[in-house]
Design brief:
There is one protein chain. The protein is of the alpha+beta class. The chain has 2 domains: about 5-70 and about 155-285 and about 330-415, no CATH class; about 80-155, no CATH class. About 50% of the residues lie in helices and about 15% in strands. It has 14 helices and 11 strands. The strands form 3 sheets. The protein has a 5-stranded antiparallel β-sheet with strand order 2-3-4-6-5. It has a 3-stranded mixed β-sheet with strand order 1-8-7, sandwiched between helices. Strands 9-11-10 form a 3-stranded antiparallel β-sheet, with no helix packed on it. It is elongated, with a radius of gyration of 24 Å. The chain starts with a strand and ends in an 18-residue tail after the last helix.
Length: about 450
């Protein structure tokens, strides 16, 4: 499951938007449906075929969602003379190099005043004629990029028909209800009257995903960023969904706006996931370790110590009863809450366009953010190869969906100290969810230790 927000590239053919959306839905649904319907074990027995299908699916999605090639010829670069440079640019920068590439004017040099002041002056002086952007430059310290007005208008085109969003949401309600019932051994195709058994899981999980995306949505609207409503991704097996995402149709003005939009989703989702898990734990049970292989998180039992966050919440809910065992048989609602924690953690990975990737870029800048993202991606892959093979699925999904997002227009002004501390706290939440409870702390936490 992956929830992330994508920034749309500046130039895209708007007339084909609806067709692209429908093709993306088909690309998401058709391969997994074919694999699910395979005989002799379906998707679980597909082996190599499953991975090939998953790779093809996300390759098609990346191809369809990428920018559409322009038919107009590419303009060659030309050097701009001093007379071609706007007065406001020469006022705020000691220009070392000025050029125009495909209608985009780029000025490189050293800023004469803080980046926030430079961006404000450029925006005021240029008006609707051009969209200014202030970026870091490795050779000249800073660069000012002036995008033509029509390019920005294309990027900020209004969202199309909302029926696609509602259709995907309705399908996801169906698939998650089916999945919630299937987790309890109920086949709704044979017993449709028992759909109520799948509702606690479906409503709990969709509440977490929905609030997560609405956190992004309303924060983006607060910062006057054009944004689409959430797209939910239904799948007819396993968890019933691959999550949800929104699209940013215009860039963030500065790092602060980028940070606020990125951090709002995980924190909003966490505010629902934690109570959902706590309420669900009331109807969960402590179980003895299974004699054979575990039957899964719900039926075989979730290991309390597999996550520091889960251990804290389980201790809060069960108290001294955890001294009798360390495996929890999660109720459907608790399972939804546990998945909500995992969704939050996966989105907080500091990679690409995932929420954590945007947070890292806003906190540390482009170069440091990309370095952190590469380290995190390789770490996820190695953990999947040598620690838990289940992480390989998420590594493949993240590799295809977490490319590079568009930078904020002012990419030099740093965050406020309060935002930086909030960023550190958010990454601490990531560690609490993913890190297992250290063996030496089991007894101190009042939980039965399986290693003694």
């Amino acid at each position: 499951m992956a929830t992330n927000h994508h920034t749309k590239p500046p130039r895209r053919a708007g007339s084909k938007g609806l067709g692209i959306q429908l093709l993306m839905i088909l690309c998401i649904l058709m391969p997994v449906m074919v694999l699910f319907l395979l005989p002799a074990g379906g998707i679980l027995g597909g082996g190599l075929l499953f991975w090939v299908g998953l790779l093809v699916t996300f390759w098609l999605i990346s191809m369809l969602s990428g920018p559409i090639a322009e038919s107009e010829p590419v303009m060659t670069a030309r050097v701009l003379t001093s007379d071609d440079q706007p007065a406001v640019v020469k006022e705020v920068m000691d220009v070392g190099l000025a050029e125009e590439v495909a209608g985009v004017r780029i000025f490189r040099g050293r800023l004469r005043e803080p980046a926030a002041s430079v961006y404000a002056k450029l925006k005021h002086a240029l008006g609707e004629g051009a969209a200014p952007s202030v970026q870091a430059d490795e050779q000249f310290c800073a660069s000012i990029v002036l995008l033509p007005g029509p390019v920005v208008d294309a990027a900020a085109e209004p969202h199309g028909s909302p029926w696609v969003n509602w259709l995907l949401f309705a399908l996801t309600v169906v698939t998650t209800t089916w999945a919630g019932a299937a987790h309890q051994g109920i086949d709704l195709l044979a017993e449709p009257g028992r759909f109520g058994a799948g509702l606690p899981y479906a409503l709990g999980l969709l509440s977490i995903l929905g609030v997560h995306e609405l956190g992004h949505y309303f924060t983006a609207r607060h910062h006057r960023i054009r944004v689409t409503p959430p797209y939910f991704i239904p799948v007819p097996f396993a968890l019933g969904t691959f999550g949800a995402f929104i699209q940013l149709r215009s860039p963030a003005e500065d790092r602060r706006a980028l940070f606020d939009v990125a951090v709002a989703g995980p924190l909003a989702g966490l505010a629902v996931a934690v109570p959902t898990l706590l309420i669900g734990l009331r109807s969960s049970a402590i179980v003895a370790p299974p004699a054979g292989a575990a039957a899964g998180v719900m039926h075989g039992g979730a290991d309390v110590g597999s996550s520091v966050m889960l251990a804290l919440l389980a201790k809060l809910s069960f108290g001294p009863a955890l001294l009798e065992g360390h495996l929890l048989q999660l109720s459907p609602l608790a399972f939804a809450g546990w998945l909500g924690l995992m969704v939050t953690a996966l989105n907080l990975l500091p990679i690409g366009q995932l929420d954590g990737g945007h947070i890292a870029r806003a906190m540390f800048g482009r170069r440091a953010g990309e370095t952190i993202g590469s380290v995190a991606m390789w770490t996820l892959l190695l953990l999947g190869l040598f620690v838990w093979p289940g992480l390989l699925t998420w590594a493949v999904i993240i590799f295809f969906i977490a490319g590079r997002g568009a930078p904020p227009l002012d990419d030099l002004t740093p965050l406020t100290p309060a935002r930086r501390w909030l960023g550190y706290a958010t990454f601490a939440v990531l560690a609490l969810i993913l890190a297992p409870l250290p063996h030496t702390l089991w007894g101190a936490a009042g939980i039965r230790c399986p290693y003694m």
